[in-house]
Amino acid sequence: MKLKQVLATVLISALTTFGMIWGYGKWNQKDMYAGQQATQVPGNYKYAGYNDDGSLPPGPVDFTIPAQAAIPTVVHIRTKTNAKQVTNNLGRRQDPFSDFFDDDMLNQLFGRRNNVIPEQRASGSGIIISSDGYIVTNNHVVEDADEVTVTLSTKKTYKAKVIGRDASYDLAVIKIDATNLPFLLYGNSDDVKIGQWVLAIGYPLDLETTVTAGIVSAKARQLGLNKSKAGASAVESYIQTDAAVNRGNSGGALINTEGKLVGINSAIASPTGFYSGYSYAIPVNIAKKVVDDIIKFGTVQRAYLGISYLDVSGLSNEEKKANGIPESAWGIYTQDVPKDGASYAAGIRKGDIIKSLNGVILASGAEMQEQVSRYKPGDKVELVYNRNGKDITTTVTLKNKVGNLEIVKKEKLVDLLGADLETLDPKKAKEYAISGGVVVKKIKEGILNDQTRMRDNFIILKVNNKEVTSVSDLNDAIGDNKQITISGFYPGYEGLYEYPISFDNN
User: Fold this and answer.
1) pLDDT over 80 at 95, yes or no
2) Active site residue 76
3) pTM of this prediction exceeds 0.85
4) Which of 250, 266, 279, 364 is catalytic?
5) I need a labelling partner for 137 at 20 to 30 A (CA). Which of 121, 124, 360, 434 fits?
6) For residue 281, is it within any domain?
7) What is the pLDDT of residues 222-254, one digit of tens each?
8) Is 383 among the domain residues?
9) Three-state DSSP state, 484
């Protein structure tokens, strides 16, 4: 064999052997790593903060800087609700035995009941959001309170005024008379990712400032907590975390590692009433719109799509079939589209499946609620919906609750009583030996008719134990209190009578 042939044979053999080894190595690597290359890092690792070579960045996450920035902005809120006397709602004529027996004895003899709800005190947390003293907290922290006080991290205490509340979102704004206060910057709750670190800051169990850490474990959670007070208008799309939160944390801050506000801590999932694994916060992107509306308009400017719907993700295959929904469908199924609503005007009809709003994919009803809650009546949003397997894009001009585009003015609760009211004539007041009052001249359709047995000509003396001497006083005393007790008397009848009233479902 010639030398050339020998060399060629050797070269071919070497190449073949090398190729087999290389090929086995590639096959074996593919089998072990499912196609991954040792020198490459998948995008999710880069996104999670890993270096290009797959190593973690040096040093642990440091919570001290964001905690130090946020602690001075989180306040301790204490509330007091005055004792209330609750009696039957029936006026009684002058009792022939009243000259011989006092009211307590008459109550015992004739079974009359005078129940007293004792004074109640509670506490929660709040977040300073402006240097001039505006504070955001939960509605349930200040609801029904007759007095609200705020204590800063410096131990300085202020009396606070409730600017406005909204049970649908479980949010409230209060204000203290102070300037140059530290305040917490808004973050972006849309940027919050499952698995990222967050800190919960507040005053749990009546303790001093407490900081706990956890990770975001879910988004757009619905718990049904607000429905008991707000009904169908309730909005819930909670950030779920495993940061320890207890009673008193309500209204406190959930911040990211940059020290920015991403949520307002509001609830816990617990069989005992104490932290047992999960806590829930209102996304800041919802809260900041509610806060701005309350400060600017006195009430939240809620926008409506004008649909009733089913969350496709929560339906079984049988339920999908019953509603004519394909098994593979996802999104928001429109059950009904009123003709006077915003969606109907934009061409959406019953059976359409809404898939996105302004480019945000809508996988659940909670996500849709969260997105719509960011807009006010008159705003335009782009919807993508599916009809008969075809995606269609339309623009919806959102409307308010009554079906128009106007800004909703703050409703005076006194107007919901449903009565003709008149300041008591000073001569009559002198005759009754009182400083003044409000005469309920005529009861019409409204809360007094629906919830009480009050009769015409009742004279109002107090609201929640606050003296009322004029219609203006009555309006101020009611304010934004959704739970009140009206006290007064009937001319010609003996005794004071009280009528508990709720504005929550009106």
Assistant:
1) no
2) no
3) no
4) 250
5) 360
6) yes
7) 888 887 777 767 888 999 999 999 999 999 999
8) yes
9) strand
